Amino acid sequence: MIYCSIDIETTGLESESFKILSVGAIIEDTTKKLPFDELPKFNAIVLQRTIVGSPFAITMNAEIIKLIDEYLRSDDKVREMIKKHTKYVFLEEDMVAKEFYWWLGENGLVDQYNDVSGGYVMSKDGKSVPVITSNTKPVYINVAGKNFGTFDKLFLEKLPYWKKLIKFRHKILDPAILCVDWEKDDTLPSLLQCKERMEIPGDVTHNALEDAWDVIQILRKNY
Fold this sequence. Notes:
Layout: E1 2-10, E2 20-29, E3 41-46, H1 55-60, H2 62-73, H3 76-86, E4 89-91, H4 96-106, E5 121-124, E6 127-130, E7 139-141, E8 143-144, H5 152-156, H6 162-165, E9 166-168, H7 176-179, H8 191-197, H9 208-220
Parallel strand pairs: 1-8, 3-4, 7-9
Antiparallel strand pairs: 1-2, 2-3, 5-6
């Protein structure tokens, strides 16, 4: 199976009121189990020009917010340095879904990727990618994520073009069900509890890409 582990960081818990700050995703092929450095990764910061959020979320994501501020105030030369140093791509909100779609296509998850817009292509970072038009068909992907269906999915589907370009298959891989103690738990375990029970070292960093990797490591205990 090929699935995409996705995690986001936001300015708060409610998708109706708050915004996405970062998106991290990793493509996993269960037949290969590649090391982290060799896995296809999407690691983006969303350029929010106005930040409204809960005190907890703002505090937890202070580093991301600082990077957004530095990036927006910098010239092109400094922006390139920031991208190189942080390994993030910095995207306007209306480009996140498009870039994610192109990333999926570049990694073989979009059927007939080079023909999706009738063969027309545009140049992006030295690569040719399909132009997204009204005829572009969405890609359907298997998704893994902690609480993805009740949290991340709601935020992502509010991004411009997301629901047109990317569809999540209904059966979501949530690692919590593999880690629950049916006799002692009153609720499903947190990501940290899942890591502890699966004997995976390290804290939960609340970095989107690292959290997405944590989910893969937990699921790998079962394949």
